[in-house]
Predict the 3D structure of the following.
Amino acid sequence: MSFVHRFIRPRFLAHAVAAGLALGAAQYFGLGAEALMAAEPDRQRPLVITDSKGDRGMLAPYVHRKNGIAYLYTSYIFDTLVSQDVDGNSVPGLARTWTRSQDGLSYALELQRDAKWHDGTPVTADDVAFTLRYMAEHPYVFGSVKALAGIEMEGVHDLRIHIKRAEYGLVEGLFSAIPILPRHIYEGVKDPFRFATPEAAVGSGPYRLAAYDKAQGRYRLEATEDHPLGRPRFDQIWIVKMGPDAALQAMSTGEVDVISYLPPDRLPEALDAGFAVETSPSDHVLRLGFNHRGQFQKKELRQAIAYAVDRSALLAIAFPGVAELAETGYFQPGSKWQSDEATEGYAYDPAQARDLLLAAGWTQNSAGRWQTQGEAIRLRLLTDGREVKPARVIAEQLEAFGFAVDLRVMEVAALRSLVADGDYDLTLFSSSTLGDPGNIRRRVFGRGWNSDRFPADPKMAGLIKAQAVAQSQAERQEILARFQQLYAEKLPSYMLVNPLMATVFNDKLSAPFMPGGVAIGIPSALHKSIFLE
């Protein structure tokens, strides 16, 4: 079914081109046709972006879905102190300038003088101070203010932020991640997680939320006037739910401008149609997790499993042409944090795997099955429905090596419960390696089902802490190089493959994936900088 049938009332079907499409959708969204057509000719048709998943929640900081795409859409509406250019470099956001003190314990910020909230109220330093204090009381899922020691007001548009210890990554971390809230709206809100009225979406970004259809997963964003970061390129942006087949068809008829994420196996169709295609490793790496409090407490046993898994075969069978082998030392190629020093890659080596298991006291019975203390070993491998194919490949490889494998594919809620209870041996999951390294501690030592859940390791924890308080990027990189070597050796989890991501554009715009990911590390080509002139 095409985009026209999904999105426009039937009486507009005969006019589903150019202005006809715009007018039909304008009425659907409750926008006056005269207002829409009064726009400049090259700006009258909105930019239409498809999202195969649909509803991402109300685009307000506390009530959007807890995933990167929902955060990304919300960033079009809410500004952060520091933004990014198309190359991923830090550039002014709501803060025109930021100056780090010599001791590294405070930052002086000067805000944009002409920034306004969508209701016309000026943005001031008081809003920033309020936001940081409010988020200390009501933690925001994609940014923590625990590092802050205090806030000092120095003028209507000037403030100084004090931190507990010198942290070099504060600009690319906290300042780039936290959406600034309007005090005059949020200060009376006691529970922001239930605050989902239209007022909740009043931000200072280049676009305002004009319409939201939760049932259909549709959004209409309208450009704001005189945004300090630049003039919006499009009067409107529409985000609509649409699967890959319908999106490709709709793009071929000019009804869609951007397919936000196209499955890589569909790229030939997009290329044959002449569309612009941007691809990039997602750095949301598929990894094999271990129960560090169960069968795999010893690193030698984790290393044995790594040698027993043939990643090249996994790549060829489950990800033909749509992924690349992952770097085992956490950071992936292209990351500015990846070390030039080679880390252990665990090339397929059954003999090495066997030697490690025998040295650890595991044995094989007459049928070649692995056992310990006379008890047969049956590995419980858990995953969710998204990773069925690679899970089956890994299960077959481990069974061929001599393990009995109990593969269980389940809903995420059930998976989380079993992982929390320790009722597993191995898990297969995807998790990001993007974003500022300040988030490594949570991803390695966190207790979430898609964290490594690695027990306290003084050496690794020490390196993670040291890089966080390093005084230069060079010092951080040197510390993180040692972290990567240690990660590859101890295998909190085993990085398997790095799937590719693709975004498709027509001739209205195009942009590469942002190096290092957007803000909190979202692999995307749709940072809001591409929507500004």
